[in-house]
Specification:
35% of the residues lie in helices and 21% in strands. The chain has a single domain (12-142), classed as SCP2 sterol-binding domain (Nonspecific Lipid-transfer Protein, Chain A, 2-Layer Sandwich). The chain has seven helices and five strands; from the N terminus they run ααααββββααβα. The protein has a five-stranded mixed beta sheet with strand order 3-2-1-4-5. It is an alpha+beta fold and 148 residues long. A hairpin with a 2-residue loop joins strand 2 and strand 3.
Length: 148
């Protein structure tokens, strides 16, 4: 089975369902393909759409995501900034991180689609956290995460 994401009209609930149902090796192949940049761009471009500003009114934080294992080496590096109840995304990062999350691509896909639990990924060594652990533990609560 290969994974093909629609070019337009992407439904987050449908994507979450696909991530749950597609075999892990197919997700790995997707994230090792020339579609990786498109997938990550689509995910991060929707962070603001799913942001719960009411849960972040007194929060000022810079979160870096390092999505590991780029096919040519290295990682993708994104930043979300939460300040004054607003959220912005940058790639590449522009500020020093309050917390940095390092995660493999398939685990990242599962995490952002509510198909994996952040604390369990952390306990299993599949999610590395540098910086403010308390902030990291609050992150999922700042978003309405679609699940399929």
């Amino acid at each position: 089975m290969s994974v093909e994401l629609p070019a337009d009209g992407i439904d987050p609930v449908e994507i979450a369902r696909l991530i749950r149902e597609v075999p892990e090796q197919d997700l790995e192949a997707l994230m090792a393909s020339d579609q990786r940049d498109n997938v990550l761009h689509e995910i991060f471009s929707r962070f603001a759409e799913h942001f719960r500003a009411d849960r972040a009114t007194n929060l000022d934080a810079v979160v870096h995501f390092k999505i590991l294992d780029r096919p040519e080496g290295g990682y993708d590096h994104y930043e979300i900034v939460v300040s004054g109840g607003t959220l912005t995304v940058a790639n590449p990062p522009e500020r020093e991180a309050t917390v940095t999350l390092k995660i493999k691509p398939v685990d990242f896909l599962k995490l952002v689609t509510n198909n994996a639990n952040g604390p369990m990924l952390f306990l299993r060594g599949r999610l590395k956290i540098d910086g403010d652990l308390m902030l990291a533990s609050r992150l999922t609560g700042l978003f309405t995460i679609p699940s399929g």
